[in-house]
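Risk register update: the risk of archive-format incompatibility is retired. Evidence:
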Amino acid sequence: MAASNNSSVSSKLLDAITNDDMEAWQPLISANPKVFDLAVWPENPIILACKLRRFAFILVIGNIKPELALQKIQDGTTVLHLYCIYGDVEMVRALVGLSFEQLYYAKDRELSMIPLHKAVMRGRVDVISLLLSACPDSIGELTSEKQTVFHLAAEYCNPEAFAVLLGEAKKLNKDYLIDAQDCYGNAVLHIAVQNKKLRIVKMCLPDLTSTTGHGFPIRVNAKNMKGETALDLYNKIPEPDYETRHIDFILREAIQREVSLSNDPGLYHHHPKWSSNIPPWRTLETKNVLLVVLAIFIGLSFTLTCSLPTFFPKEYLATIALVFELKDLVNGKFPLIFYIMSFITVLLTTSTCILSVLLYSLPCGSLMLLGGFATFFLYLLLAYFVMPKFSVKVGSRRRLSSYYLMLILAIGFIFVGSLIIHLGNCLISRFYNYAKCVTNKVLSKVWSPSKKRLPIRNPSFKIQMVGLEMLS
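Archived output:
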């Protein structure tokens, strides 16, 4: 009996909404305060109020039970999602007036998009401002494909929306979001260049006329999962027009700026969120430690080289003028001093090269580089006098001195070692990117069964009619 009474009350309340009769509504609610919890509603009252644009009823119902606004329509969208797509500022303002935070974070079933994402896709600047004023933190929400609002603004070609979002992100100290990467490794700059949107590219990059740019790290040379930078994507554009060619110019200017500022550790530590992504060799502390360690290695190499004749006097004298076979190198029949000298040569050559590169970035870098070359040639001269003078048969008639064989062996070892390290890093990077991509695809399938995207342009009349049918 009670259930029947509640159903009767709910029907009368829906009639009051339909007739826009607030006088009939008030006594029914006063007599049945728990009707929203107990009654079986033939239609969601807040959705009906939105469809009929009964703003007073939206506010009243929202104050009593705001959870009704979370009910999903077809495709898993809420009423706020739908009116953000249409750009209906009045309806969005009415729903925002409910001050119900969960409504701003409600996600659809397709790509886990919140209402702000839908507004950004359509370029609804006024709606974006309303949503951000009500819930500023929603600017950091990601879709199931790890896209930020900036990714969506660049993908759906909405520079006005991008400018509004960037201004709000600066106020919230969240401008690092512009450098975030989606599940495919694409940053906002990648997408803006691919879509040939010069205005968005300019907003992505630091201001070249200032010394600090935006004040946050824009990684112009960041690579996506395919190993492509933004400049690589530009080079794939067939027959770029005049405006598009300007993108190439400002990208190259930004790359030069990034290289010139790469030694400034403060630039990369402005946002702690990205500090973990900074290459370790870019920090000043790491460079200082590396300089000290390399200097110790070079000094140790010179000390050992000068001391070898003292440590191995008998072996040093006994091997002079001897002739060995090349196979004796592998069998370990060469004098021990030869193997030690080869190892020292590898150590000193590698240390000198790395040290010269690090010193070249300092003031008077050319002079430092010259000093590195001088140190290396000094070692070669010292090694020539320290190495025992024996020879090795190469073929039937040719002979190779111990000194030149030591140099060839050291250079070959450095080359093979560098190649192995490079291939290992490539394999590890490819495996990591593949595993990350597979994981993101699996998560995307779990959270979003459909991968359909909304069209880029504003919805046609047919789409609006379908939306109204979903509401009804």
